């Protein structure tokens, strides 16, 4: 194993987030067992308290979403409304139930629509205590020799210690950090290498480091989760003084805090991170969504073709990589949480779906010490292949096949494919050859690549570069994406029949009968010469519709314009024709240049205008450049070409 850029140089650990929570109801012994079986080195129980002072594993003290409590008539009287970390919440709460009552509840899947397999285990498992979780990892060690770690997270400690009440209105006034340490000490589970205590709050971690753990004679790792510190918002608000708020409790923290620090970027700064390391922290744990920056999509995207559009964000390409800052401060770096469910996924900046394998590798490239995931089997496979230096990393896609990130095309072999439907993703240049058992390929980025298919019916999506695709056996579907692309045929022009239907070229090899279904490929290269296929690509036509008409293309209109493109109509001529249309003229009537440019940004690029770009295009219009010419500039831009997959015909290419 090559040395890795973690704090110690070792491989990052895989943490089963709430257990194998993608496959079993979260925070059950069965979910933890499965995570361990899948290769997790650490399991993560969130802990909340019961009425009689026991710590149980739940993601939050609200029980409604993960148990059958709402169907239990005997507990109807415990339904109430509380304020949790400043937010009003109604339901049933763990602190109003004794442990005996909790043990009568059945665990259920939190998101059954997204995880129907896990939901089949509803009403089969009980809610465990922290002691039962320790017993589980001890049993695993006895049976296998594996020393599994635990990473308990104290949930809402400020609620339990300061603001929370039981259902009768009396203050809870409980220190769940002290309770957790007491429970671990009582079980004799005190190995500092096997216990990490986590919290989004800061004060309880400070108290663990400076008071609770020294008094107990233990030294567990402490992990500062970033994403909202309710304790800071509470203690630095003078209105809470009568409830025990005391900002002086943070005097040892060498960084200026305010109430706003709870939710703003203060705690992501190098100075704050260094202060954490100096006073109490061993681990920095930001959300992966804070690291891989994104913006919201105007229209959600259906990534898997199930009829539900659940992807709501697109990556900007910007990274907030805190690994160097964390490691320089002596902290481990442990982002959370990688999930393969569509509702948690994002689009890449070019509009393609960011596959879980892409996300895992992006994060691993930063130099992690561990990674949280609801899918520990995928995390284990990703880490193992990454650390082995594999040029292609393959993860099960949950549909019987593999998603494969190809980092080195020379190391892309049949061993990464499967008997199911596979999708390979390649960001590089040069030549990539599909192994005989891999059906689909997606090019990303803007490098110029050459693609050689196989005898299967391949689906191939190009990128923003100038790609060259080579005819192979089978009936292939090729979308060239942005750039100027070429399809290289194996025979002379007379050996092929070419037709355009539904805006797509169908190129039939007369000898074999194989059909290449092609879009956004501008030229064909036969053994006896070249031929233009489309003067204006399919995506460019769609872009003209959006830029000048502010809408998507209707089927008949799209087919009409693609027919003209096949006859040689270039983009400039087509854009001018759109600009002269009655629909366009009605749309722009009475609008100032500034508004026209805003329309082009939202229509063609799907975003609001930046000030510099807006000023430039307004000045172009005022200088006499026609709106059609400006629209052509938008559709020809690198930004438009890089996001062309957002406009790709879904019948021609299904992302993922």
Topology, pairings included?
Blueprint: E1 13-17, H1 29-37, E2 42-44, E3 46-49, E4 55-57, E5 80-84, E6 87-91, H2 99-102, H3 116-119, H4 130-144, E7 149-150, E8 153-154, H5 157-163, H6 176-187, E9 196-199, H7 203-216, E10 221-225, H8 230-235, H9 270-279, E11 283-285, H10 288-291, E12 292-301, E13 311-319, H11 323-328, E14 332-333, H12 356-364, E15 370-373, H13 376-387, E16 392-396, E17 402-406, E18 423-426, E19 430-433, E20 440-443, E21 449-452, E22 459-461, E23 468-470, E24 476-479, E25 486-488, E26 496-501, E27 504-509, E28 515-519, E29 523-526, E30 529-532, H14 538-549, H15 555-566, H16 571-579, H17 582-588, H18 593-605, H19 611-622, H20 627-636, H21 638-642
Parallel strand pairs: 1-2, 1-15, 2-7, 3-8, 9-10, 10-11, 11-14, 17-18, 18-20, 19-21, 20-22, 21-23, 22-24, 23-25, 24-28, 25-29
Antiparallel strand pairs: 3-4, 5-6, 12-13, 16-17, 26-27, 27-28, 29-30
Helix pairs in contact: 6-7, 12-13, 14-16, 14-18, 14-20, 16-20, 18-19, 18-20
